[in-house]
Amino acid sequence: MDKKPRNWKEKLHEVIYEADTPAGKWFDIILLIAILASIVLVMLESVESFDNKHHDFLNISEWVITILFSIEYILRIVTIQKPSKYIFSFYGVIDFLSTIPKYLSLFFVGSHSLVALRALRLLRVFRVLKVSRYIGESNQLIKALNASKAKIGVFLYFVLIICIILGSVMYFIEGADNGFTSIPRSIYWSIVTLTTVGYGDIAPQTPLGQFIASITVIIGYAIIAIPTGIVSSEMTKKKIELNTQSCPNCSYDGHKDDAEFCYHCGTKLN
Amino acid sequence: MDKKPRNWKEKLHEVIYEADTPAGKWFDIILLIAILASIVLVMLESVESFDNKHHDFLNISEWVITILFSIEYILRIVTIQKPSKYIFSFYGVIDFLSTIPKYLSLFFVGSHSLVALRALRLLRVFRVLKVSRYIGESNQLIKALNASKAKIGVFLYFVLIICIILGSVMYFIEGADNGFTSIPRSIYWSIVTLTTVGYGDIAPQTPLGQFIASITVIIGYAIIAIPTGIVSSEMTKKKIELNTQSCPNCSYDGHKDDAEFCYHCGTKLN
Amino acid sequence: MDKKPRNWKEKLHEVIYEADTPAGKWFDIILLIAILASIVLVMLESVESFDNKHHDFLNISEWVITILFSIEYILRIVTIQKPSKYIFSFYGVIDFLSTIPKYLSLFFVGSHSLVALRALRLLRVFRVLKVSRYIGESNQLIKALNASKAKIGVFLYFVLIICIILGSVMYFIEGADNGFTSIPRSIYWSIVTLTTVGYGDIAPQTPLGQFIASITVIIGYAIIAIPTGIVSSEMTKKKIELNTQSCPNCSYDGHKDDAEFCYHCGTKLN
Amino acid sequence: MDKKPRNWKEKLHEVIYEADTPAGKWFDIILLIAILASIVLVMLESVESFDNKHHDFLNISEWVITILFSIEYILRIVTIQKPSKYIFSFYGVIDFLSTIPKYLSLFFVGSHSLVALRALRLLRVFRVLKVSRYIGESNQLIKALNASKAKIGVFLYFVLIICIILGSVMYFIEGADNGFTSIPRSIYWSIVTLTTVGYGDIAPQTPLGQFIASITVIIGYAIIAIPTGIVSSEMTKKKIELNTQSCPNCSYDGHKDDAEFCYHCGTKLN
């Protein structure tokens, strides 16, 4: 982005698609506020008592947001060199689907279609991710998660096997009379229990069932340490092994990232 | 604090505002006990059965505490050089607001105003922080939290997005009949579930809802590892780079424990 | 596996018992799908409404799976040199027990025996482990767990003692009227509480009981850190002492990354 | 323990008070089994239905255990040089108090005194600790806990302040109609919520209360990382700094615990 943009299209492109100019940052902040406002609108609409009182306010606000998003959508298409690249991208589809429902509501009237349109409008949540991609910290988090993805996957795989076994055992012990009406429902219980959520909608009633439940939660308590250990060690490793450069004179490595001289022999590092 | 305080004002200032003299430490301990006692008083007053039995005891104790706090407040103003600096500081405002309610109760009588005055009195909790600032360990904790603030913020931001998406999905699946009466309420459920609290006041009833709830809690189980990993690695990092020795030439510090030469200027460390 | 297998028995053995040939991998994948399908079948059968509607579909699918497993079982016996080694192994017994119930259902008809046979069929879950032993990541997890087994055991031992003490105390405070009908039931409550599951089926009703419950959960909150710390430090340790190089003289391994001489015999490492 | 014990008193002392001889280990194992059996007996007695059926069995078993413990108690007094040192030690008092209830039950008959005697008998749980002091791993755990005691204390102190503030706020928002009948009860709720236990016996009913509860649990979710981080970093530090011995030739330190030669210069370590 060293060369200056020449015409208005290139200027707008920089504002809309990038965040390294003041104007670009302001655009992102305004967009984020509009997205958050639009999400709050859909939520409030779903609260019946609120919707009955302030229906007109919600309707007008929704139109304002919709028109703002329409302008953004058109500008994004106009300022990009290959419009198709944006339109069929993940964010392009999200932008389109979350903007049209209000226009569609002019044609389709009825309580059932309204629910479907509201669901579409909630896709706006994904727009938030579009803005958040500029946050530096989030890249680090995603990197650490990616690095420990395989291990967490294997961990969840074993958790699921344990839950299936425990759920099945509880189904045979407690039975339908105590709320364990089927194996999938028992597995739902064992997942809710092992993860220490514990709704209490299904709870063991027989002494034997309570004994096994106790063992289950203690197992859950001990193995919750595993994913934490995985992510912790992944992050700690990153912090310590930050530099693999070796000294040209004594070939010692493990230098701090901001080191200019070898900590062992004092030779300048390049 | 090398030079001795000359008059009684300076002596009192040292006792009240500092903790490095025996008298100053005793003042802090007595103040802490008075604050804790005053908090317990407000709590007990809210227990109706206790208030009915021991109303006079509570009333008298409250007056004793109020007068003690009034004396402390006046002394703090008198002994400081610029009283306005204390009066309009955070702790000055807290001290004032949590002391006056008892005096106001002489003028305003009525059950409704009593509730408001009790709320004011509970601001005394913040006085505890004034005393706890002398605890060395708390500074370390706050430093570690500050260092990982940005990452935990980004983490909570993603947790909120996940909760909004999951809450919305559950609202469409379960619907108002099963307790998911609005999207905000569904998001409340998804937050309570993902954080493994699981009250059970709202719980999925349909098999599909239970299936999604199971996935939600397993996600919550896996991602609880992330903030832990952040704080752990932040704290572990501190422990390993412990060396606070500074280079005799360029005064850079933070050398590795086994460093023989400064990583910045190459001078030999002694 | 350098020498080529000569006859069909050796070829089949390689496909069934090993996973380092394309055919062997395909066999494992197909087997895994069959096992998962068979588990889903048993689950669906336990859902009464589903079983009533699709009984024939479930019955036929069950027969298909059973015949597939029978063929696998026979092939495993035929292709191995010492059949008894497989038949009386853990997986051999699991394979046998989880395959025969469908054949037995031809002779024993009755709701009670069906439940027992379903329980037998669920042993198929353990078959999944047979396939998962090829996942590299799982070996690492199991190794880390083994290394911290003793410490987690001691930790759970102390958790149990705390739970017995707390449960007993609550039994005397709350008593049978508030749901704490016996000491084992109170211990069940203290385990469910300390591990932060919190069903809510038993909850303290007296102020003193609620006070002790508050202390219990805060203790639980503080000590949940311990198993996590154990596993984290175990995993972090692994990462730092990563060197698998072995000494050319005494063949000791586990040298520090920056070691120049063997720590056991003093030979220079290359 | 190099010199051989001469008379039977010294021999018995070694068996009873120490665990480094085969007889001493066997004594500890038998004692542990007897203690566990005695705890199970008290538990089973509290289960009314079980007590009604097997009252005689429980009574006889209780007498056997009591006589065994009496013999152990007398032997401990006889074999020690200064009996007062044992009698008034923590374990001596526990041993005495948990043994006499059965004898007292001969004189005091009545349901109320039985409950008090049962409470006394449950002190046997502490006897388990007497045996467990020989477990090496437990010393490590206790050391790690001791090292991070101050930090965990400060952490719990802040958690309590947060709980008092949140509990008070919820008391004013939800009020007595929604179950938040007093400030202590609201604080009980906030502790149960922040620690992610979530019984559900008290749950917010108003939208504002649910909003604040959501923020509470998210705060709880983020700060659960802190004690974990404290313990993890404490344990990781221990593992890495295991040896502070320095090489006599090159004075390098940080050797592995089982190192026999310096990893830097190859000199034999003493």
Explain this structure.
4 copies of one chain form a homotetramer. By secondary structure, chain A is mainly α. Chain A has 2 domains: 8-132, Voltage-gated potassium channels. Chain C (Four Helix Bundle (Hemerythrin (Met), subunit A)), CATH 1.20.120; 147-235, Helix Hairpins (Orthogonal Bundle). Chain A contains 14 helices and no strands. Chain A has helices at 8-17, 22-46, 48-53, 55-79, 83-87, 90-99, 101-104, 111-121, 125-132, 136-147, 149-174, 183-194, 207-223, 225-240. In chain A, helix 1 packs across helix 4. The first copy, chain A, starts with 7 loop residues before the first helix and ends in a 30-residue tail after the last helix. Chains in contact: A-B, A-C, A-D, B-C, B-D, C-D. Chain B binds chain C through residues 47, 196-200, 207, 228, 232, 236, and chain C through 47, 196-200, 207, 228, 232, 236.
From the structure above, extract its key features.
Helix Hairpins, homotetramer, 14 helices, Four Helix Bundle (Hemerythrin (Met), subunit A), 2 domains, 270 residues
Describe this structure in a few short sentences:
Four copies of one chain form a homotetramer. Chain A has 270 residues and is mostly helical.
- The CATH class of the largest domain in chain A, by name, is Mainly Alpha
- Spell out the helices and strands of chain A N to C: HHHHHHHHHHHHHH
Which whole number gives the mean pLDDT of chain A?
A: 79
Helix-and-strand structural type of chain A: mainly alpha
Task: Write down the Rg of chain A.
Answer: 27 Å
* Span between termini of chain A: 29 Å
Number of strands of chain A: 0
User: If interface size is counted as residues with C-beta under 8 Å from the partner's C-beta, which chains form the largest one?
Assistant: A-B, 66 and 61 residues
Largest sheet of chain A: none
Number of domains of chain A: 2
Number of helices of chain A: 14
Counting copies of identical and different chains, the oligomeric state is homotetramer
Q: Quote the beta fraction of chain A.
A: under 5%
Q: Name the shape of chain A in a single word.
A: flat
Could you please say which CATH topology of the largest domain in chain A applies here?
Four Helix Bundle (Hemerythrin (Met), subunit A)
* Residues in helices of chain A, as a percent range: 55-70%
Q: Which spans of chain A have pLDDT < 50 for at least 5 consecutive residues?
A: 238-242
For CATH, the homologous superfamily of the largest domain in chain A is named as Voltage-gated potassium channels. Chain C
Question: If classified by CATH, what would the architecture of the largest domain in chain A be?
Answer: Up-down Bundle
